[in-house]
Design a protein that fits this description.
Number of domains: 1
Order of helices and strands: HHHHHHHH
Helix content: 55-70%
Number of strands: 0
C-alpha cells in the first residue's frame, strides 16, 4: 500500500481572534451541549446558588431576602439533583473520571456538606444532629470552598481558564502564508 504524501503549508501565527466569532463560540448551543447537558445544568445551578447566596449575604439587610431565599432553595434542590447525577457520571464513566483531579474530589466534599447544611436548614427534623447550623455556616463554608478552589487550582480556576480559552481562540483557522 502506497501512502499519499501530504503537502505541508506554512501558517502564520498567532491567529487573529475576531470578537464576533468569539461571542458566537461562547454562546453557541452546539458548544454548550458538547460535553453533556447534565454538566452544564450542574454548573448553572451552582452559579445560581453562588449568586443568590452572595446577594443574600451582602445585600440581604437592604433589599430583604424572602423571595430570593425561596429561589435559592429551589435552585439548591435542583443543584442537589444535578450533583447526584454528576457523581453518578463520575462513578460510571471511567474516561470522565480520568479527567478529574484530586482537587475536584475535595470540592465534591464541600458540595456534599453544603447540600447537607441546606437540608438541615430547610428540614430540621430530617437531620436533627445538624440543627445548630445557620445560614452563616453555609456562607463560611462557601467562602472556604472559594479559597480552596482558587488556590488549589479547582473548579473556579478551571472555569476561568475555559472562559479565557474560548475568548482567546477564534472560529477561523490559521491562514497559509501567501506564496512569494
Amino acid at each position: 500500500m502506497v501512502r499519499k504524501r501530504r503537502e505541508v503549508k506554512e501558517f502564520k501565527y498567532p491567529v487573529e481572534a475576531k470578537p464576533l466569532g468569539t461571542l458566537a463560540d461562547i454562546f453557541s448551543i452546539r458548544m454548550l451541549l458538547k460535553p453533556a447537558l447534565v454538566l452544564w445544568l450542574f454548573h448553572i445551578s451552582m452559579a445560581l446558588q453562588l449568586i443568590t447566596g452572595l446577594i443574600m449575604d451582602l445585600a440581604g439587610p437592604l433589599i430583604g431576602t424572602y423571595a430570593l431565599r425561596q429561589f435559592h432553595g429551589y435552585a439548591g434542590a435542583f443543584f442537589t439533583i444535578m450533583f447526584a447525577i454528576y457523581v453518578g457520571i463520575i462513578a460510571i464513566n471511567k474516561h470522565f473520571r480520568a479527567l478529574r483531579e484530586p482537587i475536584n474530589y475535595v470540592e465534591m466534599v464541600f458540595y456534599a456538606v453544603l447540600i447537607l447544611f441546606g437540608l438541615a436548614l430547610k428540614f430540621p427534623a430530617l437531620l436533627p444532629f445538624l440543627t445548630p447550623i445557620t445560614p452563616f455556616h453555609c456562607t463560611l463554608l462557601t467562602y472556604g470552598w472559594v479559597v480552596v478552589s482558587v488556590f488549589g487550582g479547582g473548579g473556579i480556576v478551571q472555569g476561568l481558564a475555559a472562559i479565557y480559552f474560548l475568548i482567546a481562540r477564534t472560529r477561523s483557522k490559521a491562514q497559509p502564508l501567501s506564496e512569494p
